[in-house]
Amino acid sequence: METRKKTNSEYIIDALRFNKDLRSPEITQKVSELSGKTMKIQDIASILAKLSNSEKCDLGFFIQKKKTPRGYTYNLVTEIFELEPVQMYDLTRKTGKNRFTLEEALEKNPELKKYVKSSRLKKASSRTAYTRTQRMAPAAAAKQGRMPKTTAGARLSDYALQTVATQLFKALSKQGLNINVNLNVRFEGFFTE
Predict the structure, then answer these.
(1) Across the strands, what pairs with 66?
(2) CA–CA dist 74, 164 (Å, integer)
């Protein structure tokens, strides 16, 4: 099996795994040693800023950034060490086939929950709780007569259209999707030829 080349993010995680409270220059030096190439401190600082930001990277919940008189120090919380290095690397990615997710990390070690924002926990639980019955809810509602039924060429009332659109947007937002709406309006009957 061919071994793949590590990314700079993975080298940074390796540096944090073996030491406590490292500053950017120390992390840069350790990454240079591990990778076998000279790294620039600004490149490492840029990657560290992303990795330690929980909005951009799930591993950011578990990287502690402390201000000291000599600058910021970084370290990993002790509870994260129950994860394999590859699982930690996966927490830096947002997508990928068979990647280890934040939800799986919290399941493997529930003590990690104390570091994750409660809003993120709620979003994660609502995403995983979206079941087949919830996907089928709009069809079931239509069968019960709560949603307007139309045939080809029939027009929806303003209220019915608003109800359908509202239900659609709620269902999409529950899945964590961003919604952009383009609205085209066509007026009929104002002009005669």
Answers:
(1) 73
(2) 49
